[in-house]
């Protein structure tokens, strides 16, 4: 279950995520499956050699503190993390996906899911797995 503080019902701040500290740049995507569609809630990439992404990452395109990274535009047309915000009575499943790339293939800050996935093509060297969390009101 998503802790409420990481949802629109409270602080709507990004949660801590363990990504494993690869020597390759890492990418993280948070998505919600609504029917057959995946809705991107958070896109963050160019994360270098970290075990953990701490919680409460600033909602800015270019992150310099507490580490360097780039964030994209989610399906809510904002940059950075946008947590679960289901309708009352609905439950949703959210997927945190991570992967590592062989190069720091630069794409613009604020890029969307389609642009990020295209940039990852041919450069992904390892998938870090998927964490799944649910949320309902």
Secondary structure elements and pairings:
Blueprint: E1 17-18, E2 26-34, E3 37-47, E4 52-53, E5 62-63, E6 69-71, E7 91-101, H1 113-120, E8 124-136
Largest sheet: 6 strands, antiparallel
Order of helices and strands: EEEEEEEHE
The CATH first-level class comes to Alpha Beta
Taking all residues together, what is the mean pLDDT?
87
Number of strands: 8
The overall number of domains is: 1
Poorly predicted ranges: none
CATH architecture: Alpha-Beta Complex
Arrangement of strands in the largest sheet: 5-6-3-2-7-8
Counted by DSSP, the helix tally is 1
Name the helicity range: under 10%
User: CATH H-level name... which superfamily?
Assistant: PEBP-like
β-strand percent reads 35-45%
């Amino acid at each position: 279950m998503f802790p409420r503080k990481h949802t629109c019902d409270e602080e709507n701040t990004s949660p801590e995520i363990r990504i494993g500290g690869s020597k390759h740049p890492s990418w993280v995507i948070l998505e919600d499956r609504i029917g057959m569609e995946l809705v991107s809630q958070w896109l963050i990439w160019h994360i270098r050699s970290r075990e953990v992404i701490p919680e409460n990452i600033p909602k800015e395109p270019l992150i310099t503190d507490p580490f360097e990274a780039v964030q994209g535009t989610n399906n809510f047309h904002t940059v950075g993390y946008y947590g679960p915000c289901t309708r009352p009575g609905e439950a949703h499943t959210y997927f945190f996906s991570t992967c590592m790339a062989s190069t720091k293939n630069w794409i613009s800050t604020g890029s969307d899911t389609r642009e990020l996935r295209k940039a990852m093509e041919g450069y992904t060297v390892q998938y870090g797995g998927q964490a799944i969390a649910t949320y309902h009101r």
